[in-house]
Amino acid sequence: MPDEALPDARPDVTLSTIAAQWGRIGCIGFGGPPTHIALLRRLVVQEKGWIDETEFEDAIAATNLLPGPASTQLAIYAAWRLRGVRGALIGGACFICPGLAVIILLAAVFLSSHPPTWIAGAALGAGAAVAAVAINAALGLVPASWRRVGEARGRRIRWVVYAAVGAAASATVGTFLVVVLLACGLIELALSGGVRPPTGPKGWFLGAPLGVVATGGLGALSWVALKVGALSFGGGFVIIPLMQADAVHRYHWMTNPQFLNAVALGQITPGPVVQTISVVGYAAAGVGGALLAALIAFAPSFVFIIAGARHFGTLRTNRVAQGFLSGAGPAAIGAIAGASIPLALAITEAWQVAILATALVLIVGLRRSVVLTLVGAGVIGAMGAALGLPVG
């Protein structure tokens, strides 16, 4: 669409300005979605006044209703709001690419077949703390989701049930977690008076493609990346069980310790956590696999914004969307918490348990920085390896 067709667009904001500012946020955005949202708000609302506060908050609410990485979609939306499709494409790419380049470079170092001892120790140290990060991520999402259900006792009971089902699915059948999230959303939609979930042959239409058993290769990698980018309600850590089940247990692209390392790299690098999929892609098919996985995982976010951003006001108040998220949302929170179980079980060395316990105290108990804790765990692992701790 032409930029001038976008109501209240800002042609005075050049595409080069968007590239520079969104690229800057992509370079310094350590800390995941809360940091990205804060940086975007400071830029487009507080400093430049390009978007008013109410519209920005509405955009946050709307992107949280969509599957995939919400803070990435918010960055794409803000750029789209200023300069239409071209702004969205340039802003989104500049937000994503700095962290993507860094994480692919680190993947090449940490996933090498014979890394130096200190690198192996750093990987095990940072990986050991990842389960604590998952628990912290889930706890951080609980208050807002719990407020959404209101005071009705029945809805609160169902919230607990959905969360428990999501946790159980994440810990046991991660490959089919998307089916569970969809089912919880549709069930709540029906119970809350929205629409009836599909039944009979049509009822299996949504789930059937998710159960396709691929034999591996680029087709399988593409499918895993698509699940991460287009079908993961809750974003962030809900992608972890989706990826672990496929990358480690089904296709054997990487080992459990390597997967822990991939998750840690996704946390300590700037940009969206979903870039963890590029490490999985690197393990599956080198640099080409990393780029393919990232392209497929992020493409739906661009499509959602470019095609649907004009309808965000309607989406936020849409009864069907709200009802679906009331079921899928708590299931996703449970899935994030449940991911901590296979992540913890992936620990291979006894000394890693001490790092995990320390990380739980620092991140969950004392609310210390996730990034600094992971980096510190990596430093301890590297020092321990140099002093003779086993690294596998």
Architecture overview:
It is a single chain. The radius of gyration is 21 Å and the shape is globular. With 392 residues, it is mainly alpha-helical. It has 2 domains: 3-99; 100-386, no CATH class. The protein is 74% helix and 0% strand.
Quick synopsis:
By secondary structure, the chain is mainly α.
- Please tell me the total number of domains: 2
Shape category: globular
Poorly predicted runs: 198-214
Main sheet properties: none
Structural class: mainly alpha
How many helical elements? 17
Cα-atom Rg, whole angstroms? 21 Å
Strand content: under 5%
Q: Quote the average pLDDT.
A: 89
The percent of residues in helical segments reads over 70%
The tally of strands reads 0
Features:
single chain, 392 residues, mainly alpha, 2 domains, 17 helices
How are the elements arranged and paired?
Layout: H1 15-28, H2 33-47, H3 53-63, H4 70-110, H5 117-128, H6 130-149, H7 153-172, H8 177-191, H9 200-203, H10 217-230, H11 239-250, H12 256-268, H13 276-308, H14 312-317, H15 319-345, H16 350-365, H17 370-386
Helix pairs in contact: 1-2, 1-4, 2-4, 3-4, 4-12, 4-13, 5-12, 5-16, 5-17, 6-15, 6-16, 7-8, 7-15, 8-15, 10-11, 10-13, 12-13, 16-17
